[in-house]
Amino acid sequence: MHSTMFCKYHTSTETLLSCGKCDKPICGRCVIHAPVGTRCRDCAQLRKLPIFEVSPAYYVRAIVAGSGLAILLGTAYGVFAPALFRIPFFGLILIAGIGYAIGRGISAAVNRKRGKGLKVVAAGLTISSYALGSLFIGVNLFGNLSILLAIIIGIYLSTTAFE
């Protein structure tokens, strides 16, 4: 006969399972299947992959690098946009390219780390770059449907650097 065991983490749940390393009783909700057998949470030592561990210092690096790029590219876009929009579709491709450049620049600054927070930083700085460019032009970039679509594509491209 087996004695009744209760899960270490859910003390009211009966179980017949135990950790293969420390022999603590664990229930079906707590079991972690490892290549060497079943483990409890403590013995499995699950951790995030290092690429997804983004410390506050990396966010500072992302904001500084992204802000520099956003100011540089937004200013360049604002100065050269009137001439560039005379070439069909080139201005729209350039708008999308600014987002791509900001995303890749931030990704390089944070050693290719990934995370949702970095995507938010990239998207926000991409929007601010377009807003800065529109100040130079004196035109509402967000009023034209084709330009708005290019901005959305630019935001998408800025966030794909972190996938």
Number of separate structural domains: 2
- Following the backbone from N to C, one meets helices and strands in this order, namely EEEEHHHHH
Based on DSSP secondary structure assignment, what is the total number of beta strands? 4
Describe the strand arrangement of the main beta sheet, using strand numbers.
Answer: 1-2
Structural class: mainly alpha
Q: Describe the biggest sheet?
A: 2 strands, antiparallel
* Helix content class: 55-70%
Please count the helical segments.
Answer: 5
Strand content: 5-15%
Mean pLDDT: 86
What is the C-alpha radius of gyration, as a whole number of Å?
25 Å
Distance between the termini: 52 Å
Question: Descriptors for this entry?
Answer:
163 residues, mainly alpha, 2 domains, two-stranded antiparallel sheet, two-stranded antiparallel ribbon, 5 helices, 55% helix
Blueprint of the fold:
Elements (H helix, E strand, L loop, with lengths): L4 E2 L7 E2 L16 E3 L2 E3 L1 H4 L11 H29 L5 H20 L6 H22 L7 H15 L4
Antiparallel strand pairs: 1-2, 3-4
Helix pairs in contact: 2-3, 2-4, 3-4, 3-5, 4-5
Please explain how this structure is put together.
This protein has 2 domains: 5-44, no CATH class; 50-162, no CATH class. The protein is 55% helix and 6% strand. It has helices spanning 41-44, 56-84, 90-109, 116-137, 145-159; strands at 5-6, 14-15, 32-34, 37-39. The protein has a two-stranded antiparallel ribbon with strand order 1-2. It has a two-stranded antiparallel ribbon with strand order 3-4. Helix 2 packs parallel to helix 4 and helix 4 runs antiparallel to helix 5 (145-159).
